[in-house]
Design a protein that fits this description.
With 430 residues, the protein is α/β, with parallel strands linked by helices. The chain folds into 2 domains: 37-309, Periplasmic binding protein-like II (D-Maltodextrin-Binding Protein, domain 2), CATH 3.40.190.10; 327-426, no CATH class. It is 50% helix and 13% strand. The protein contains 14 helices and 9 strands. The chain has helices spanning 2-30, 48-60, 75-83, 147-154, 163-166, 170-179, 194-201, 213-219, 261-275, 299-307, 311-315, 318-373, 377-394, 402-426, and strands spanning 37-41, 66-70, 91-95, 107-122, 139-140, 184-188, 206-207, 224-228, 244-256. It starts with a helix and ends with a helix.
């Protein structure tokens, strides 16, 4: 009987291990391990988004997550990469108003992270008073699909230069401006990046003022009216010499909807670390925002911005937290399956004991018949040996089953007396 109990125990253990394995497989499917490498589509080389990407890369490395930064021509290409299921881009930058949110259901926003000014630099001995001064000028407005190109189209900015020169951007556009091949360029980027600072400090290049900037923000809701204060570039040299009105949009960090939730929370933490400070156009705490007009917000990012890191994330490293969550899920699921079984284990155990005693009782009933039918002392000796075996088996019963034990022992003693009386009747006592 106890061999069967041992077999039952081993089968139960094997079933528990199989159940735990199946639960782990299910957890691995529904709670997969976060990726260790993310592909990020940024923007033009040495632009603000590339600078942001490198800052993110340094911070995420502390958590064991690597970034692969890939340059692009701007928002249009970034959105195309993020929404293409054949490509493996998980994170990207986009400017506000670049796309209808209903056309990009595959992506979510982690919030707006910075203002993206449209800097219009020009070469002239005289100061241009307004946007009207750009009429008939040769202007490099950047490649199609970029924020600069859309901005030029929104304000109906015509260019008299060749198409090749009009599509220039970055260092090539700056070179064309200095060489006189274009009269003006539209540049985008943060105030602090070297390319913008170099143009702001160049005495031969001027920055266009937008006196009617506020009107444009009412006509185009994706635009923002910013003011570059006099002397903020170089206070000693008073650059710029007066306040300059600037048109800007905002930059958002977008992710694919299928990106791991813990990676999204980690990215939100990084965005807050990089962008939460002050700048020339905003106060501390302005970015990252908890809203995005152009794209649906990620619920994981919103939860982080509102409540901060989870209790576990405050005290455990990122990858330890992930394995802890997965292990906890397996433990809870296993207990949910195993605990109900413990209600039936005592009943199953008692059933085995009772079955064991019933078999011994059945053997005793057969022995009782054999004793009554025995006619020789030798037959009674054989029966007595079998009775001794039953007695040994009875003493193997657990102490918790005393009623069954004493009932069985009483029946064995009764059969011993019957054998003894039978032997005396035959004149052959043992």
């Amino acid at each position: 009987m106890f061999k069967k109990l041992g077999t039952y125990f081993l089968l139960s253990l094997a079933g528990l291990l199989a159940t735990t394995t199946l639960i782990w497989v299910a957890v691995d499917h529904y709670l997969p391990t976060p990726p260790k490498t993310l592909m990020v589509t940024t923007g033009i080389k040495n632009g603000a988004n590339e600078v942001f990407g490198k800052q993110y890369e340094a911070i995420l490395a502390r958590s064991g997550v690597a970034l692969e930064l890939v340059n692009s021509e701007g928002t249009g290409e970034n959105l195309a990469r993020l929404t293409d299921p054949k490509l493996n881009y998980q994170v990207g930058f986009a400017s506000e108003g670049a796309v209808d949110r209903t056309q990009s259901k595959e992506i979510m926003s982690l919030g707006q992270v910075a203002y993206l000014p449209y800097w219009i630099f020009y070469r002239s001995t005289k100061e241009w008073s307004d946007i009207d001064s750009l009429k008939g000028k040769r202007i490099a407005i950047g490649p199609e699909g970029t924020g600069r190109h859309r901005f030029a189209q929104a304000i109906h900015l015509d260019t008299s230069t060749s198409k090749a020169d009009s599509l220039l951007s970055g260092a090539q556009a700056t070179r064309a401006l200095r060489e006189g091949r274009v009269d003006a360029i539209i540049a985008t980027g943060a105030f602090s990046i070297p390319a913008i600072q170099e143009l702001l400090r160049d005495p031969s290049i001027r920055l266009l003022n937008f006196p009617r900037a506020e009107a444009l923000t009412r006509i185009f809701p994706q635009f923002r009216h910013l003011v570059l204060p006099a002397g903020v570039v170089d206070f000693e040299k008073n650059i710029p010499p007066h306040d300059i009105n600037i048109i800007a949009t905002t930059t958002s960090v977008l992710v694919r909807q299928d990106l791991h939730p813990q990676i999204i929370s980690l990215l939100a933490q990084v965005l807050e670390e990089v962008h939460n400070g002050f700048g020339p156009f905003h106060t501390a705490g302005t970015f990252p925002t908890k809203y995005d007009i152009g794209y649906p917000m990620s619920s994981e990012a919103l939860d982080y911005y509102r409540n901060g890191p989870s209790f576990i994330n405050r005290y455990l490293p990122f990858w330890v937290t992930n394995y802890f969550v997965r292990l906890f899920a397996v433990l809870v699921a296993t207990l949910g399956v195993v605990l109900p079984l413990f209600k039936f284990l005592p009943k199953i155990y008692n059933w085995f004991i009772e079955k064991y005693v019933d078999k011994l009782m059945q053997r005793l009933r057969i022995i009782h018949i054999d004793i009554n039918n025995a006619t020789e002392s030798s037959s009674l000796n054989v029966i007595e040996k079998e009775l001794n075996e039953i007695d040994k088996a009875a003493h193997l019963l657990p102490m918790g089953h005393t009623n069954l034990y004493f009932s069985l022992i009483g029946r064995i003693d009764s059969e011993r007396k019957l054998i003894q009386n039978k032997c005396e009747a035959h004149g052959g006592a043992n």
